Predict the structure of Radical SAM core domain-containing protein.
Amino acid sequence: MNLIKVIFMDYIKGRGAQHNTHNKFLQHSHEVLDDFLNYCAAENEDADQNKTAYLEIFPKTIVNKVTSPDIGASFSMNPYQGCEHGCIYCYARNSHEYWGYSAGLDFERKILYKKNAAELLEKKLRGKNWEAIPIMLSGNTDCYQPIEKKLEITREILKVLLKLKHPVGIITKNALILRDLDLLKELASLNLLKVNISITSLSEQTRRILEPRTATIKKRLETVKILSENNIPVNVMMAPIIPAINNHEILPLVKKVSELGAKSVAYTVVRLNGAIGEIFKKWVEKTYPDRAEKILHQIEDCHNGTLNESRYGVRMKGEGKFAEQIAMQFKLARKLYLKDKKIPEFDCTIFDKFQTNQMSLF
């Protein structure tokens, strides 16, 4: 029993989730038996290799209609399913169950990629019924997660958007976005781009715990600065606010990103729907054993006594006294540091699906 206890208490480095939850869509479940763990320990072998697998999939479409009234976008596209960043709180974890995987470790270690995404996008935008409506890249998982450095799917998507002069919003927490600065500058010069950089904390220690494989806080702050210096409008997402972990950083974080050129900030309050509740609870008990109960109770205080909140209109901001305090802090922060700043509107009038403004060769 001692061997088993040691194995279970070991922290899986570089990962957010510390186990795989059962997939609610599957009849059977996978269980690691004590005999196997004891055997691995006796043989000095790893029970889990903790490696990431990249699997190509072949979708027929890439643009998704967004029906949630809480999301400020009508359409989104996701070149990747699953995300190696491993953010423990990520709402997208539940979507991995639709692919037959767990919302836990599988979400971080089974990455599905859509190599034909740019081709599908161009086909969609050139359709006779498509009119220019801003598309969010991505609405689910990060389009600049580590494998993008090799595959360059997001870069190819941006090339299509620039060629057809179509508006796009980007949300990421990876400094890899700066690789595509050439394309971003051209899109921004035509008012076709808004960039959202996700920064949940100014503490590198907190970042490593919450978001193990994301860019460092220093890199993300540099990204805000460089994008802003190149006239690319930046909104910073402090998402999510997690009570007793990062809620005390609202004012200093907004002040810092404003000084670096960000034009606006937005936030969400953490919500733990579906399998995320189980994943987060086990993680917080392992990571913050001294205050796990406090964190969970304060999250419940933001969602009418439950960790699970799905109601439109309140799920993103929460309710109750604690949620009100968060909202008041952001209101004050915007008044102090972002009073005269504003994100420009998209220009949807120059979309050119047939490239009629290109000079003919004949």
Notes: The first helix runs from residue 2 to 9.
